[in-house]
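Researcher:
Attend to token order:
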Amino acid sequence: MPATFTPKNVEIERKHTGIGGKPPVDRRPTGGGGDGDNWDNRPSGRRGPRELLSRYRLGVLFALAGDLMFFVALVSAFFVRQSAGHFDARENYVSDWHPIAVPPILWVNTAILLLSSLTMEIARRQLFREIDVMEEWLGLGRPAVKRAAPWMVVTVVLGVLFVIGQWIAWGQLTQQGFHFNSPDPSSHFFYLITGTHGLHLVLGIVALAAALGALFTLKRVELRQIVVDCTAWYWHTMGIFWIFLFVLLAYFQ
């Protein structure tokens, strides 16, 4: 029977450290599109990019869970105050809640925010294209950054347009006599809900700008992937929150 053996070059490939143009096995592109192969081959005590990405995602999820509880409490207070009222001199129960017609520009704002979520997801996926990441490791430039950066710029612009649209909506309500400190509780809650979400979105725009800068300053591919991926998760969540809040203001007042 002929003898079988394992060529030595196979073992050399397995232990290759990345010198000579090939990435080390524990730094191959993963997460959000990666295949997750070779994770058992990383050096002892060293975290692979997929594990780092998962840890940062978990941190973002915990932070967003706190935001979710805050918005749930705000919506609960909305419904409680909506059902509250008082008894008049004839012992009739009277509600002092007067629904506010949603300014039409909020419909446009909603479309803008949904579009920005799409552009952000396109940018995120560009950073996880394996062929582009491999080209960077081979010293052929940063094609992933060149593909993702324009989409992130568009996302920032759309986010700014959304905030401007919210400001215009508040101005329209003020002209109609609905102020934040109006005695009508529906007016108070409208400003409180949209203003709180607007503040979170401004923080998201700052995070987007920081992530955009990180694309050109961070040298490690996996770190750029983590920054953009976590920012995308935050941005998508703010979009989902707004959909629920908009439906609440438009149909449940």
